[in-house]
Amino acid sequence: MLEVRNLKKYYQLKAGIFKKQVGFVHAVDGISFNVKKGETLGLVGESGCGKTTAGLTILRLIEPTAGEVFFEGKDIFKATKKEMRTFRRELQIIFQDPYSSLNPRMTVYDIVSEPLKVHGLARKKNEKTEKVSQLIKKAGLSPHEHMHRYPHEFSGGQRQRIGIARALATNPKLIIADEPVSSIDVSVRAQILNLLQDLKKEFRLTMLFISHDLSVVKHVCNRVAVMYVGKIVEIAKTKDLYNNPQHPYSEVLLSAIPVPNPKIRRKRILLRGEVPTPVNPPLGCRFHPRCSYAEPACEKVEPKLINIGGPDEHLVACHLRK
Amino acid sequence: MDRKSSMGSKSPGQIVKKRSKGVSQWSIAWRRFKKNKAALGGLFIIGVVVFMAAFDSLIAPFPPNDISGFYKGEARVPPSWDHLFGTDNLGRDVFSQVVYGAKAALYVGFGAAAIVMSIAILVGLVSGYYGGRIDNVLMRTTEIFLVMPFLLILLVFLRVIIVLAPSGVGGLSMVTLMIGAFSWSANARIIRGEVLRVKEYEYIEAERSLGASGRRILFRHLLPNVLHIIIVLTTLQIATAILVEAAVSFLGFGDPNTITWGQQLQNAQEAVKEAWWEGIFPGLFITLLVLGFSLLGNGLRDALDPRLRE
After folding, report:
1. Which of A93, A101, A107 has its CB closest to that of B22?
2. Which chain A positions have a beta carbon within 8 Å of B207's beta carbon?
């Protein structure tokens, strides 16, 4: 349904009074993946690895440097203004920060009806009110009590519900959820996740779920893509990835998930060194300076994503898995 | 505190009805503004001057520019019950002239501020939102206006226009227009800065992801969120414009056919020692009105600043 091919986003680094270009930040450096209809694909990685940039670039909220994104067979980056309007209706985003993603001067009604107005989906006033109260109810708020209130009168979790109602207003087919629960209190996190799951079923949504929280991803995603410094290192079914990670980096990431039972002893892999800067990523495999299995080839040749799982599609970019 | 007073006066039914209605940030700001004594004082001063301007012919005991006193030998008589603020060099009642001057002060203040803010809002919004080359061109132009010696240029332009233009052009409207045309630059920069801050918020990004037009984002989303700055700047700009008009008139570049407080100051300057009342009272009113607008502006800033929100 959504196919991303070799997507790149570089930011120019400029210095001095003449704005001389001194380099590039390789925020997203050639990633490819696809999201199948009805599934939830998780995109995980450390902060700064380019997951959010990837999400925003797919929606063309940031202009890409190179690459193609196909949504239902049509290239988003080559779309005309008119085609873009359709894409804007069918692709929606849920933002990370529920505090800055709602206009503080607008009531909940105004915020949720904004997509309807922009796309001319409900012309009559009572039609609009009807649709908005439906959406608010679906998002788990009370239309009677909450519709004419302002964002600052709500808690973080409630605000995220408003954001979800807004994203659903245009009846989208695909939703990019950009860390939808990471700035929400842990106690309401599960509620929001379950709400997303329910709505996904009800609206037959496809979802790209961007997160750094591996336990959340395990809970909601069908497949998971792991990113490291602008590259995808592994894509697999959630179960396969969590039980049998193939890339050394995935292995390290998974070993960092906290376990609720303190009596269980487990192996924790600690990495040496720092995450390399995306301005000057290491040659060859980007993970090689920190990888405990690294071979000479890893320093020179960049590994390609290859399928090692047969029909189950377990893709990994590592020289050691062939 | 607030809740207690509103609970006591209303029946329970009304409270339930009220609950589904949200409290906008504007009403929070108003609640906070009401607690600010200085700002309310400013509002009161402005109210008095507006009242003077609205009912000037009823309040003033003498008609405007009435020089009949001059023929009775009443030029520059000190304050008395007949002439509350004394009379000036031509025997005009200073109190009456001060009352008639209120209209001119408000006209220049509001007129110039309207011109200034229209230009500043347009430049600031467009420059801040679109960025890039548009921003570069607009901001360099703004800087040209910013570095000009404002008062000097203003005086030169006023003199040139009065000399070159056919009679009838000029007057108070020309002074207003000139003040407006030359003092928008600082405000444009401040508004641009605020737009740059607000446009980074995710709700603007959300709007873009909906495919809303640039104009819709500018006027329905950015403008309401920088409006608090605009309101404060407008209030302070009114004060500045009144002060500038007084300076221009005092220097003899104003409209000699209109009664303004600055004009009165100019007449008074030849006899500061002998007839202090001629200058003190118009000067006092200039100071009061400017103070009023400044207090109001500061109060509004405290009430509207989103960073001070509890």
Report:
1. A107
2. 114, 118
Nearest to A61 among B19, B20, B208 (CB): B208
Q: Please tell me the predicted confidence (pLDDT) of residue B121.
A: 95
Q: A211 - beta bridge partners?
A: A44
What phi, psi does A12 have (nearest 5°)? -75, 140
Instruction: Locate the chain B residue with the closest alpha carbon to A162.
Output: B203
What number is the ipTM of this complex? Answer: 0.82
Residue reference for tokens 């990019």: A176
Number of structural domains chain B divides into: 1
Query: Could you tell me what percent of chain B has a pLDDT over 90?
Result: 47
The DSSP element (H or E) to which B194 belongs, if any, is helix B185-198
Distance from the Cα of A291 to chain B's closest Cα (Å) equals 37
Residue type, B147: V
In a domain, B33, yes or no: no
Across all residues in chain B, what is the average pLDDT? Answer: 86
The pTM score is 0.83
In a domain, B203, yes or no: yes
Q: Tokens 């009912």 sit at which residue?
A: B55
- Would you say residue B83 lies in a domain? no
B105 in a structural domain: yes
Beta bridge partners of A69: A4
Contacts of B216 in chain A (CB under 8 A): 118
CATH number for the domain spanning B145: value is: 1.10.3720.10
Please give the interface size between A and B, counted as residue pairs whose CB atoms are below 8 Å apart.
79
Residue B174 structural domain:
98-308
pLDDT of residue B6: 40
Mark which residues 22-41 of B lie under 8 Å from A by CB.
22-25
Cβ within 8 Å, pair B22-A153:
yes
Query: Which of A34, A82, A73 is CA-nearest to residue A206?
Result: A34
